[in-house]
Design a protein that fits this description.
The protein is mainly alpha-helical. It has 7 helices and no strands.
Length: 126
């Protein structure tokens, strides 16, 4: 009998499958479907930063900006040097019409990674 994880009877392999399926849903423009799958993964693995980052992206794509902000912030608490998370949080703030925190996180993203998109967003021409 396979080992289960939690009361749902789902296995760790099932969570990996759900994570990969959520990536596909997000890529095919179904962010709400991705969030649903990731909720189950994160319930069992709340420390999984990759799942939280993917869920934050899905919230952003679904225009659920407050949940996106919270997830990106949690990722940054765990990985303060994650340039992508800074950039995505900045975009979230930008969409909420909060230019000051957006500018701060755009600049942090550019300082951590000289990606041309990050540099443009931070208004550092490079």
């Amino acid at each position: 009998m396979p080992e289960t994880s939690g009361p749902t009877g789902r296995t760790p392999e099932t969570h990996v499958i759900d994570f990969r399926a959520a990536e596909q849903l997000l890529a095919s423009r179904d962010p709400r479907g991705a969030v649903k799958l990731l909720d189950g993964v994160i319930d069992v693995h709340p420390e999984n930063t990759a799942a939280r980052l993917l869920r934050a992206r899905a919230f952003f794509a679904a225009a659920q900006l407050r949940p996106a902000e919270l997830e990106f912030s949690l990722v940054l608490e765990r990985e303060p040097d994650n340039a992508y998370a800074h950039f995505a949080l900045a975009r979230t703030y930008q969409r909420q019409n909060r230019p000051h925190p957006a500018k701060r996180h755009f600049r942090l993203a550019a300082a951590l990674d000289p990606n041309p998109e990050y540099l443009r967003a931070a208004r550092f021409e490079g």
